[in-house]
Structures are given as structure tokens and as C-alpha cells.
Design brief:
single chain; 657 residues; alpha+beta; Penicillin-binding protein 2a (Domain 2); Beta-lactamase; 20 helices; 28 strands; 26% strand; elongated
């Protein structure tokens, strides 16, 4: 029995052979025949359409995945040593995000002679480079296919494979144009952050012979680190722009005569989205600046070096909305002939974000805190709507403690405890002893500075902020009473502010000692200044007020809690808060012009030491304006925080209807 293949008839005249079968080790397909105990492998080699098509599909898959395997390619000249690097050079800015590549057709008419061509459909989604959605650059390119002496099909590498316009030695260039950034608006729809002229101060190393002297002069004028700046100047390229600081145009103009004579100093004018002042709600609004290398990498192509983006706060959270989408232009660069424009998409403008901020009140709040030497915060809330009118922090650039801080509330939390006690039947006229100390399961509680008022009505305990009275009353509450009541006033409740904000954490009591400490705002209870301003606003409104900060786009509203505080109980607490001002710990607020002020002061121990350091608090409301003032290092709420509240309300009276 012969192992040779049976001869096949030749093709009809005028047609090329599409397949031939050979006996060869290492070919792709095999059949097995057995005769006389012998095994014979009959292997076939695909030298027609199937082999060419499979290779074209493989190249298309690789390109779509951003891969370039040299073993799949040959060249009519010299095959580049690094195909991936050569592709990146030819594709320019497009190389960062591979296209979708499909094989649209394969011409195998000359496959029997070892030659074929595939048409590849190329589709670059330029949204991956920051362009508006739907910006897709499509074209068709030709992939040559050749069968080599080793009987393997290989793709023919050529620059025009990347794009037909590159045949003359050109490369592709991607140009991006950022649209102007949209404004952040205040409550009334006017901008509180808008494009503002700025001057970037820098140094060109080649223009100074003494980097240390240049750095020293700029440091003296601009309060920057002279040694660090001098080292950056020395390390930079001679013609580089070594950034020092960006100044508002008005600030630069005030120092122009000092800055311009400094050897090596250079200046760039532009605009940046800025608020009316550097401190203006800075913790909430955040900052805008040139993207870092890390942000470029994390953006997945949305940003490129030199772009401007939101770096923190609301500017970062709503960056995509405010920034819009860049415009893109793809064209050829270099090579023979004139440059060709291959694709363009115009930029898409960003959309504003409207906040609840009242510009006049925010400026006042910032200014009130500017004189404090301790980290502090001030929040103002509209009692009718829950809209947050002012959010101030001092220092302005050390985080947003007003919204995100986590602090024990001290005696301001007695507002919550009193609502819970009233719901349980407490009469404000009931005598509740204010002793120097009160002991619960071996734990002794005391009053601020050892005060004691004896057998007095509860309303006096509230006005004078007696801790021991509240500790003694805590036994009337169940373990979950304070978390449930706090949520009815917005503390620890679900919020929808549109920004990062801490609503508070009021854990259920785990022991009688735990409950006693929580009753006057110590123990494990933590709040933000915003949370306590919301509690005051809820008392003023006689119903739950949740804070609102971002008004458009409006976040989805959370569901109301299953139960609500009794409006009559909230009205009673309001009366008690008024007595804090008329005869209690916040009499400094009694002279504020306008409607009566209702308040509650607080002093909260925290940290470690003997004595323990204390936070100072004052919360309250006047007419439709609720507020919370927090001072990180203060002896007492009445002595430290209440005067700041009085200053704020007095100034606010001059600008509010």
C-alpha cells in the first residue's frame, strides 16, 4: 500500500489553484493511516485564502489590543527593530489608546502566488483623548500579506498601514483644545468662581547667573522656600520655565515693581477659575490647576500634560461637568507635501454647578474667622430650606473641617438630648439638681470649672449647661433614644448635599456610663459643624432640615426617617435656647441687632492630657439663619465661640433683608 497522496485533477483553465496538499513535517493539519503496523502522517499546508485571512484577523486583534508582534511581520525594506515604538512615533498622540480594528475584506486572488491584501477598518474613539462623546475617526487602510520561503504568511509593515496619509514620511499629530471652564454659581445664580486674570511667576535659569540670589529675592517678596527654589533652578534646563507661584492679576500688579527687576524672573499671563478671595469657601469649592502626571495617568486619556483640572473639593468632584470636553484635531505632520487635516471635533463647553452659597455671607464668615489663631469653622444654614449659605474654615487651606470634621459636640448636643427627654415626658419646669459631680456605675461626671447650681428647674440646667443634671436624667432614656432623636434633627441622618460632608455618628449606648457621657455630647458621639448647624435649623423650623449645598445638578433626595420629632417639643427647645442668650452661657449674643437669637454653647474635651484640651462650640439661629461656630482650641463655647457668632450675626444683619 503506497503512502503517497492520490493525484488530483488540475484546475480548469483560467483559474488558480486554491490549495495543494503535501507531506511535510511541521505542517498545520494531519490525518492518520495505519498499514502493517506503520503510522503515516499526511500533513497539509494552507497556502491560500484561509492562511491570509487568519493572519489579517490576528493583526487586527493585536492592533486593537495595542500589541505589535514582530514575528507576524516582514518588510519590503528594513523591519523596525521595535515595532511598538515605531507605531507610537507614527501615530503620535493617538498611540495612547488603540483603535478598534476590523478586517473588512481579504483579496486572495493571488494567494497561490504567495501574495494577498486585507482591507482593515480603523476606528479611533477620540473620547478616550478627552473629545466629546461620538468623536470617532474612521478610515480604511491596506495590510499587505506575503508568504515567505518558510511557507509562513506574514504581514507587510509599512508606515501607510497606520494611515494611508503617512506614505510620504509624515506622522500623525493630535492637537487638543480645552474649552473655558464653566463657572461655579452661588445661590442666586451669579458666579462665585469664574475665569480670573492671573500671572504665573517663574524663573528661566539661563537668565540668571546666581540662582541663590534670584531665589532669595523672590522668596522675600512671595513667601516661598528660597533654598528649594534655588535647587529647582539649578536642576532645570536652561530655557525651562521654573514655576514659583501664581498670583491674581491684582496681587501681581501690587508687587510688579519688586518682582520684575529680579534677574531671571519671567511672567506668564492667563486666566484661572477663582473665587472672589483666596479664602472664599476654599475647603468646599477646592482648587483648579495644571494636572499632575499622576492625574494624567489616572484619567485614561481625558487629560494631557498642560491641561487644567479640578484638584480638590467641588472642583474635583464635578470636574467632568465643569471642564466639558476638549476639541481635537488630527493632522499629518512633516513628510512630503502639505499637512493634511484628517479629523476634527470642536470642544464641548462645560456646564455650571450651582451651589447654595450666599456670597455676602460667605465673605463675612471668612473674615470673622480670619482673626482666630486656632483651627476653626463656621457654617450658616437657611432654616426654611436647609440650604447652606456659608462654609468657612480657618486656616482656609487646611481642609474642610466645617463639612467633614469629626469632633465631639460637647454641650451643644444637649439640644438633641432635651428633645429626647421632652418626648419621654420631662417638664422644663421640673427640678433637676445641678450637683458638682454625679456618679454613674463608678464613673464621676462634673461640670465646667466645677460649677454647681443646686436644686433648680431643668430650664436653668439647660441655660447654664449643667452636665451633671443631664447625666442624672440619662437613666430616663433607652440605649437607642439619642441616635433616633439625633436623626430627627438631621444628625447622623442620610444627607444629599452633593459634596463630601459628615452627618455625624451617634452610636447606641452600650452602658449606663456610655449613655450618661453621650447625654452631654461626650463619649463616642462625633459630629461636624455642619451637622450641628443642621440640628439648630431643624429646631428653628420645627421639623427636620437636611442640608443642601449643590443645587444643580441636584442630588437625589434621601427618604425621610420613619418618625419625626414633635414640633411642640422643638418649639420648647427653641424657648430654652433663647434663655441661654438672655440668662445663660451665651449672653454675648443678646446685643445682636435684629430678631431674637437662640443658642446653645458647648465645651468638648478631646485627645489626651491633664487637663484634657477642649473644643469650643456655639450653635443657634436668628430668624431664618441657623449657625454653628467651632473653635478647635478654646476654653469654653461661651467665652470663645459665642463672640465669633455674635460678630457674624451682627455683620450679617447689615447685608440680609
Amino acid at each position: 500500500m503506497s503512502s503517497e497522496p492520490t493525484p488530483q485533477p488540475g484546475p480548469p483553465p483560467g483559474r488558480r489553484p486554491r490549495r495543494r496538499t503535501v507531506v511535510a513535517a511541521g505542517a498545520a493539519a494531519a490525518t492518520v493511516a495505519a498499514a502493517g503496523g506503520a503510522v503515516v502522517w499526511a500533513r497539509t499546508r494552507d497556502d491560500g485564502a484561509d492562511g491570509a485571512r487568519r493572519l489579517a484577523e490576528e493583526v487586527a486583534r493585536d492592533w486593537s489590543a495595542g500589541a505589535w508582534r514582530p514575528e507576524l511581520f516582514t518588510s519590503t525594506g528594513q523591519l523596525p527593530a521595535d515595532l511598538a515604538a515605531e507605531y507610537a512615533r507614527l501615530a503620535g498622540g493617538l498611540a495612547g489608546a488603540p483603535p478598534a480594528v476590523t478586517v473588512t475584506s481579504v483579496d486572495t486572488e493571488r494567494a497561490g502566488e504567495g501574495s494577498a491584501e486585507a482591507a482593515l477598518g480603523i476606528s479611533f474613539d477620540l473620547a478616550a483623548h478627552g473629545a466629546p462623546g461620538g468623536s470617532v475617526m474612521t478610515y480604511t487602510t491596506t495590510l499587505g500579506l506575503r508568504r515567505g520561503d518558510d511557507d509562513r504568511w506574514r504581514a507587510v509593515w509599512a508606515p501607510e498601514l497606520v494611515h494611508p496619509a503617512l506614505a510620504g514620511g509624515a506622522t500623525l499629530q493630535l492637537q487638543r483644545t480645552q474649552p473655558p471652564r464653566a463657572d461655579v454659581l452661588g445661590r442666586d445664580g451669579t458666579p462665585v468662581v469664574t475665569a480670573t486674570p492671573v500671572v504665573q511667576v517663574g524663573v528661566q535659569p539661563s537668565r540668571t547667573s546666581d540662582p541663590a540670589a534670584t531665589a532669595a529675592s523672590l522668596a522675600e517678596a512671595l513667601d516661598v522656600d528660597a533654598d528649594a527654589l534655588a535647587e529647582r533652578i539649578r536642576q532645570a534646563d536652561p530655557d525651562a520655565f521654573v514655576a514659583v507661584i501664581t498670583l491674581r492679576r491684582t496681587d501681581y500688579d501690587a508687587q510688579r515693581d519688586v518682582l520684575q527687576p529680579v534677574p531671571g524672573a519671567v511672567f506668564r499671563e492667563s486666566t484661572l477659575p477663582l473665587a472672589p478671595t483666596r479664602a472664599f469657601a476654599r475647603g468646599l469649592l477646592g482648587t483648579v490647576g495644571q494636572v499632575t502626571a499622576e492625574k494624567v495617568e489616572e484619567s485614561g486619556g481625558r487629560y494631557a500634560a498642560g491641561d487644567v483640572a479640578g484638584l480638590s473639593g467641588l472642583q474635583a468632584r464635578y470636574d467632568e461637568r465643569l471642564a466639558g470636553r476638549v476639541g481635537v484635531l488630527v493632522r499629518t505632520d512633516g513628510g512630503e507635501g502639505e499637512a493634511q487635516e484628517l479629523f476634527s471635533a470642536p470642544p464641548e463647553a462645560g456646564e455650571p454647578v450651582r451651589t447654595s452659597l450666599d456670597e455676602a455671607l460667605q465673605l463675612i464668615a471668612d473674615d470673622v474667622l480670619a482673626a482666630t489663631t486656632s483651627p476653626s469653622a463656621l457654617v450658616a444654614v437657611d432654616t426654611a430650606t436647609g440650604e447652606v449659605l456659608a462654609v468657612a474654615n480657618s486656616p482656609a487651606d487646611e481642609g474642610d473641617r466645617a463639612l467633614s470634621g469629626r469632633f465631639p459636640p460637647g454641650s451643644t448636643f444637649k439640644v438633641v438630648t432635651t428633645v429626647a427627654l421632652l418626648a419621654g415626658g420631662l417638664d422644663p419646669g421640673e427640678t433637676v439638681t445641678c450637683a458638682p459631680t454625679f456618679t454613674v456605675d463608678g464613673r464621676s461626671f462634673r461640670n465646667f470649672e466645677g460649677e454647681a447650681f443646686g436644686d433648680v428647674p431643668f430650664r436653668t440646667d439647660f441655660a447654664q449647661s449643667c452636665n451633671t443634671a443631664f447625666a442624672s436624667l440619662s437613666s430616663r432614656l433607652d440605649d437607642g433614644a439619642l441616635p433616633a432623636t439625633a436623626a430627627q434633627l438631621g444628625v447622623g441622618a442620610e444627607w444629599a448635599t452633593g459634596v463630601d460632608a459628615f452627618a455625624g455618628d451617634v452610636p447606641a449606648a452600650e452602658s449606663a456610663v456610655d449613655l450618661a457621657a453621650a447625654s452631654f455630647g461626650q463619649g463616642r458621639t462625633l459630629v461636624s459643624p455642619l451637622a450641628m448647624a443642621v440640628a439648630a435649623a431643624s429646631v428653628a423650623a420645627r421639623q427636620l432640615r437636611r442640608p443642601a449645598i449643590v443645587l444643580d445638578p441636584a442630588p437625589a433626595a434621601p427618604a425621610d426617617p420613619s418618625t419625626a420629632a414633635d414640633p411642640a417639643d422643638l418649639a420648647t427647645v427653641g424657648v430654652l435656647m433663647r434663655e441661654v442668650v438672655t440668662s445663660g452661657t451665651a449672653t454675648v449674643l443678646g446685643g445682636v441687632p435684629g430678631e431674637p437669637v437662640h443658642a446653645k454653647t458647648g465645651t468638648a474635651e478631646h485627645g489626651t492630657g491633664d487637663p484634657l484640651p477642649t473644643h469650643a462650640w456655639t450653635i443657634g439661629y436668628q430668624g431664618s439663619l441657623a449657625f454653628a461656630v467651632f473653635v478647635g482650641d478654646g476654653s469654653s463655647g461661651g467665652a470663645v465661640a459665642a463672640p465669633l457668632a455674635a460678630d457674624f450675626l451682627t455683620r450679617a444683619a447689615a447685608v440680609r433683608p
